Structures are given as C-alpha cells and as structure tokens.
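Q: Protein A?
A:
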Amino acid sequence: MTPTCASRRVRVPMHKIAVVATLVLATGAVGSTHTGASSTPAASCLPSWRLVKTPRVGIGEFTAAAATSPKDAWVVGDSFGGDFALIEHWNGSGWNVAWNPDFALGGLKDVAATSATDAWAVGGGDSTSLVGHWDGRRWTRVPIQGAKTPLYGVTALSAHDVWAVGDGVIMHWDGARWKRVASPRDATLNDVAAISSSDVWAVGTQNDGLFTMHWDGHRWHSFPGPNVGDQTSWLTGVAVVSTNNVWAVGESQSGLSIRGPVVYHWNGRHWKAAEEPSGGPINGIMARSATDIWAVAWDDPLLGGGGTTIDRWNGKSWHVGVNVRFRYLAAIASDKRPNGLWAVGSTGDPNGYLPRVKPLVQRYGC
C-alpha cells in the first residue's frame, strides 16, 4: 500500500474466505499478455465506475492493488485456494500478466509500490511466507528469515523502509534484508499503513477482538480493543490520513451468520467508534484526504444482503456509490489520477456458495 493517505488492501481472514484461481504463465518480465483498455475519456465528464478488461487467467481473485502513477499499477491475488500467485501490471493502456517461476507456490495477499522500479508483494501458504520484489525488470522472490506463516499486509515508505505483517509476525526491510521485530505472537495482523518512518499502524485481531499496533520510530505499542462487546471481531484494513486521523475497518460476528461492519477512528489520543456505512463487513479502505475516504464491503446476497457496496466518506457521513450483487471486491486503491480509483476482487461469491468466475478490476474516473 502507498505510504501517504491511502490504505489499500485489506485481507479478510483465511478461515472466512476461500480463494480459488488459475494463472496463465508468462515468463520473466511484464508484457507477455496484453489487454487493451477502453477509449480515451472525454475532457469533462462525471466520474463513474466501469469494468476494465484483464488477461484471461481462468478462475481466480485479485486481493490487492497499488499504483505509483496513472501508467504504473499492480494487482495481485492467488489461485487454487491460495497455492499460486497471480500478478498483473497496468501500463496506462492495458493489463499484462507478470509471473516468475519462484512464485509458483504461494498466493499473494498485498502489494505496495514506491516507484516504477520498486514494488513489493507478500503472501504465502499455511506454513510459509512469500515475499517478492519488482526491480523494474522482473519479480524476484526475496528470502525472509523469521517468518513461517503467511504475510497479509505490506506498506513501503521507500526502497529501504518497508513493513510487512501477518500471523503473529511483523517484518521490516532496511534496504538489505528482512528483520523480524518483536510483536505479540497471538495476534493476527491483517493490514499495515504508514505516513512516515515514525508513524506506522498495523491492525488485526487478538483473542477474537479488535487489535491495533503503532510504531513510533523506536518500538511497537499495542492497543488491545476497542471493545465491541461479546462479538467476535477483527480489523481488515487501515488508512492513515495524518498523525491525528487514522481509520480502521473490519467486521464483527455474533453467532454463526450475523455479520456487520466495524469502523473506528484514531484522533491522536484514542480510538473511538465511528459511523458505519450501510452494508456488510468491510474488506478494504483507502484515504486521499480527510474528506475523501473510500471503502469496499460485502453483504452476502445468499444470506439476505445486498452484495458489494463501494462507500465514500465526505468528512461528515458515508454515502453508497455502487451496489452490485455477486461482484466481490476485496480492495480499493488510488490510481493517482484526480478522483481516480482501482477496485479489485472477483465475480461470484467469496464464501463459496457460487463459483468464482474470474478476477475482477473496476476503475473509477472519467
């Protein structure tokens, strides 16, 4: 995820969502498979959401997106229940499949980029961590010591300052190697976002409750809670606008089937429950400013819900921008244009009641 005013992807816990996909192989670098985009937008128009064609890769799901410019964006995902990586690149006119044999085993959960020659993707399997780096020519798997579980979130401040989080683990890249940083081993961290090298947030769950951590430049501080009663709850995404303006989102569950959204706001001193958008559990959040925050949520239609919603916070309240049944969106990110966004996921139902048809990319703008 990008370091300033954005939080891309978010991961829904693995026991809640089954991910399946098939990857079309392309060697080495980006560019072996290409799909064109729609015609050039008009000079003046009302922004809207539209589907963008991607290369045919069979059944699958995208889980995260990141962009450094309107002509440089990445989406990642996984296939065959998370066993294989799925990576595609946007060059300004179309999406291309990117793949490296080193990524054959292990799905990808998140991606972050600082430039056209510096991007990171993380994921893994049940007992392995997967970290890949893009150097402007190809993706390479990077050895990582001290992490034997999947990594779910990554954020990059620079080429020598990158954070990754997962099941009971926080890792830091200093430009030369990955190093494990002390963290609670019983906490699952699903997302991480940063605004500076001394202001980093990670969110997830601990003991079936909400859990957040903050890096102040010297060490991580834990913030158990906030408390949402006797419900099982977890945080899936975090967006940092400023030191005194941080948003954390996720879901709560009471019983076996009643699931709802969770939204909390950090004002510089403490976390406080905030207004929740209509719809179901929130999968992803990103922020461009205090009055321009976006979230994607899923309210299962087969359980009486309305499907996917894309919601926007204008500084005062949430407004539903899109409501689509049986299109599952996992993450949302800026495409670096004014008012431009990427939203990624899959067609079908994430709980497995309906087959996932193919990875899905939607774009917002003119």
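Q: Protein B?
A:
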Amino acid sequence: MSGPSGTRSAARAVSGSQEARSSPGRARLTGRGSVLVMILIFLAGCLIAAWSDLDWPAGLGYAAGVLLAAGYARREALLLVVITPPVIFATTLIAAELVTAGGSTLLATTEGTILVLAAAAPWLFCGTAACVLVAWLRGLPRCVRDLRAEIAGRGAADRQAPASRAS
C-alpha cells in the first residue's frame, strides 16, 4: 500500500488539513484571543461614548465585540466567550469612566458607569442574546456537555482515589 496511490492519499490528507487550517471562514481565536478582542472593542466603544457624551457607542461596541468573539473563537473557547462579556464590559466601562472622569473621580466614575449601563441596557441584552445564539449554532451545547463530562470524570476519580488508598 505504500505505492503511488498510498502516497497520493497521504499527500491529499496533508494538503486537506493545511487547507482547513488556512481557510478564511474557519474560526481561529483562542479563548485568550477572544477575551483580548472583546477588551479592545469594549474599551474603544466605552471611550468613544465617554468622550462624545453619547451612550450608544458603548452598546454598539459591546454588541460588535461579543459577536466577533463568538464568530471567530475556537469551538472549545465558546463557553468562555459566552460567560465573560458582562464582566469584561463592566471592567472596561469603569476603566473608561476613570480615564475620562472630571471633578470628584469616585462620584463621576460611579455616576457615569450607572448612566451608561442604564442607557446601553437594550444593546447589552440584545448583544448577549445574539452572542449566545451564534455560540449555540457553532457548538456551545457540545462545550457544555464536555464540561459536564470532565467534571463528572474528575468527581468519580476523586471519589475512587480515597477508596483505593483505604484498601
């Protein structure tokens, strides 16, 4: 089987895997890369919102960040991409408000954060729902099943370890 046909099929398998890696439609962000993309887009949107005294750029930045992260993340990172955006957005919003705060920094930051969160709530809700939908279509249920299996596997191994030590 190591004749010319075997060599051709091996070459096709190698070139097929290289094509799959370099295909433009394939997701390629790791979990950390997805988080970084969200941080940068959220921060840009929050800074634009703070400097322009408009609230919608923060919401638009949130929606764009979560959709880009969910669309380009690797399948194993989808659970992280769905869970972390609210925390990342709150952190970047507070950072942007701290940078652009005038007067009493604590009061201005608190007031600005609350007002932007209230005004951007529809964007946050719709962006989160769209992120979950995109992740669901890309394989989020499989990620949840894998997590459950991993937790159940470790739990069973932890329960067996003390029993084997007692014997």
